[in-house]
Amino acid sequence: MFATQTFLNLPHKRQQQIINTAVEEFALKEYESASLSAIVQKLALAKGSFYRYFKNKEHLYRYLLSYVVDFRLEKEKEWLQPPAKDFFALLTERFKAEIRFDLAYPGFSSFLHNVAQEKNSDELGNIQEYLTASMMKPLIPAIEEQIKLGHIRKDIPATLMAFQVLQVQQNLYNYLAFVYKMDSRKNVRRKKKAFSLPEEDIQQAAAGFALLLKNGLLAPGKKK
């Protein structure tokens, strides 16, 4: 929608070069201060050629956001273990998949973090709302199913629970970044992974955050 057919007709490798270069710019800077000129220069493109791919900076930004969100959801789906009967075991797996994504794709992760911090603007509107709704979309049906099965409480709307799960998921990364003193922007500049964590540390942190949610979401009468 936001990319022209000319861009979509480019070879996959060239598309990825443009996407990765543009994501890096928006991962390091807020939307207003990000520069199309810097992106074009890194790509060794004439500015006129760039406008054959995207109408303006806003269209580029919105295309990147849609691309990165879809890419992240697909990757997390790949990394999830077979569906668990226990909802909180499933949450633990989701949290682990989210951390794996952040570790493997620091540029994409930092870009999404920057989007989450953007203020409402005349140009972008409430871009945070789009990001939140996109990330909540796969959570809501899973929560509704668990409510029907009687595994989690039914007196709180599924949308509210999904929102809370998403906030906890985001805070898990912030927690690990704090504990391991990670500088995400420095890693993006160096084109390095965020940090390396033993699988058991990821498991422990993910299980801990899922447990914190469990006491609030568990249906009355269920064993803790």
Automatic annotation (TrEMBL):
Keyword set, alphabetical order: DNA-binding
One Pfam family of this chain: TetR_N
Matches recorded under Gene3D superfamilies: Tetracycline Repressor, domain 2
Superkingdom assignment: Bacteria
Record SUPFAM superfamilies: Homeodomain-like
Listed transmembrane segments: none
Protein's recorded name: TetR/AcrR family transcriptional regulator
Domain HTH tetR-type: 12-72
Residue ranges for the DNA-binding region feature of this UniProt entry: 35-54
Record keyword DNA-binding present: yes
